[in-house]
Amino acid sequence: MQTIEVDFYGTLVVMVLVLLLGIFIIKRVKFLQDYNIPEPVVGGIIAAIFFLCLYSFGGITLKFDGSLKDPLMLAFFSSIGLLADFASLKKGGKKLVIFLFVISGLLVLQNVVGISVALGLGENPLIGLLGGSVTMSGGHGTGAAWAGEFIKEPYGFSAAYEVAMASATFGLIAGGIIGGPVARYLINKNSLKTPDSNDNDISSLGEYETPHKEKLITQKSFIESLALLAFCLLIGNLVAGLMKSANIGFTLPTFVYCLFTGVILRNVLSSLKIYQVFDREVSVLGNVSLSLFLAFALMTINLWQLVSLALPIFTILVCQVALMAAYAIFVTFRFCGRDYDAAVLAAGHCGFGLGATPTAMVNMQTVTNHYGMSHMAFIIVPLCGAFFIDIVNALVINGFLSFLG
After folding, report:
1. Residues 68-97: tens digit of each pLDDT
2. Is residue 214's pLDDT more than 80?
3. Do 363 and 176 touch, CB atoms closer than 8 A?
4. Where are the alpha helices (DSSP H) in 247-278?
5. Can you tell me where the transmembrane regions are (predicted)?
6. Cβ contacts of residue 249 below 8 Å, gap of 6+?
7. Cα separation of 215 and 378, whole Å?
8. Alpha carbon distance 124, 157 (integer Å)
9. pLDDT band of 7, cuts 50, 70, 90
10. How far apart are CA 381 and CA 352, in angstroms?
11. Cα separation of the two ends of the chain
C-alpha cells in the first residue's frame, strides 16, 4: 500500500477541478439540473469513487492537506450571519413567527425519528442524529460541520462524514421531488383560491424574488467584504475557545459563534449607519467557500465505511421523507393559514426541511409559475431557511446530545 501526500497547493487544485467537473456534468444532465443538485456534490462523489478505485485496484491512498477545510466552512456560516438583516423581519410579520415555530417543531421530530430508528436497528444513535435535523434541515454545510464534531472525542464516530454527506444528498433530492406534489395536493384537496398565474408583475415583487439593479463588485468592495468575513472568523474562534475553556457544560460548534458574530456585526453597522454590507458580494464569497469545503469533504469520504451502514441510513431517510410530507400537509399548511400562501410555504418547507434553501426556492418557483405568485412565501422562506434554521438547529442538536449523554 502506497500513501501519497498531496500538499496545500495540490489539494487546492484538486478541489477546484472537482467543482469544475461537477459544473461540466450538471450542464449535461437534466435530472441534476431539475433537482438543483450542487456542483460539489456531483464532482465530489465522482472523485471519491475514483479515489476508491485507486485504492482498491492500485493500492494507492491519497492524503490531502486539510488546512483549508475549517476556514472555508466557518467563512460560509459567517456569510449567513452577515446576510441576516433584522429590518427584513418586519416584512414577514406574524406569519414569519408562526412559520419559525413550525420549522422548529420539525427539527425535534426529525431527531426523535432518526434516533428511534437507529436504536431500533441496533445502531449508533449518532447515525440517527446525522440522518435527522443535522442534515435534513441543515443540509451539507451543517452536516459536515457537525460531522467534524462527532469524529472527535467524546463521540469518536469515525464514519460521521460519510453518513452526513450521504444523508444530505438523499435529502436534497427528496426535498426537490416532494415539494411540488405536496403543494398541488393541498391546493386541489382544499379547493384553494389561487392568484392568476399571469399576474406576476415584477414591479411588486419583494427583494428575494427579483434582483435589484446590480452594484458592481470592485477591488475595494471585495476587500471590505473579505475583512468582514475575516473579523467573524477571528471573533468566532476566540469566543469558541473562551467558552470551551470556561467549561460551563454547554458548548456549541465554532461555526455557530462565527454566525452570531456576523449577525451582530451586520446589524450594528447598519443601525449606526457606519457601513452597509454588500449582500451579493458576501453571498458570492460564502457560496464559493461552501462549494470548496464540500468538494474537499466529499472527495475525501471513505466509501467503504458507508457501505456497511447503507441499510440503516436508507431506512432512517425514508422515514424522514414520510415525516416531512406528513408534517408539511398536517402542520405547516394548517398553522400557516390554510390558504394559498400556506400551500406554497409547505412546498418551500419540504425543500429546506429535507435539503437546502435553494431547493425550497426552486419548489416555490415551480408552484408559483403554475398557480400564481405568493409574495409572502418568498419573503418568509429565505429568512427562516437561510438564517434562523441554523441557530435553532444548533440548539436543538446540542439538546439531543446532552440527552444522549
Report:
1. 988 998 998 898 888 877 776 666 678 888
2. no
3. yes
4. 254-271
5. 6-29, 41-60, 72-89, 96-121, 163-187, 222-242, 248-269, 281-304, 310-330, 342-364, 376-401
6. none
7. 22
8. 9
9. very high
10. 9
11. 39
